[in-house]
Amino acid sequence: MRILLINPNTSVSITDRLMASASTATSADTELVPVTAHRGVPYIASRIEAAIASNVVMELLAEHSTGIDGAIIAAFGDPGLGAARELMDYPVVGLAETGMLTACMVGKRFSIVSFARALAPWYRETVEWHQLVDRLASIRMPDTDFSNINDVQTEMQTTLVALAQSAVTEDQADVIVFGGAPLSGLVKEVLNDIPVPVIDCAAAAVMQLETLIRLKLRRPIAGTFRRPPAKPSTGLPPELARRIGHQDN
Question: What is the pTM of this model?
């Protein structure tokens, strides 16, 4: 199977981290096809940035979907996930959804640990959108800022471990979810420092998506994510316009 891995951030270094982490979890017959956002911001940390990223995700899905069996929206807030499920005929998953649902399989409550205070409101709304608030123990963010998104793992590793430990002891979290594409791959570095399971969302996403693809579930013709009726459009990239107009087959 071929899986499209879309990094809605413009940082190629984040794409590389995502690929390295996801590749550790892929089956032998799975090919990951990485794509990095061609416009937007280096890393998404607010609602407006997520809204911009959602548009870019739709364009990339439409442009790169030939021969693809499923796609991962590889940003923790899952920008555009609902729209992507309306747009595409194959399964689409997001980092936050797969990370949190995987956590729910191994614990009663999970905590999200991430690297920037600005992310907290958007992440909480993401939990609400996925209707997992009752399973959320806490969202833990550092009080200090980082200097470079490319070095955030090494720069903040000690702080992130301390936040995870506090989530376990003070918030009674059964599982830790590292939130944010820039933290992909960090789990292997800190596994022995955190006394509960820790979810790497990129790895969880590819494994969950492989399962959905193998289940061969039918495309919904009813329900929340059914494909909308064909409609003309103005000013959209050609591939996306054809998809919205049902001219893609």
Answer: 0.94
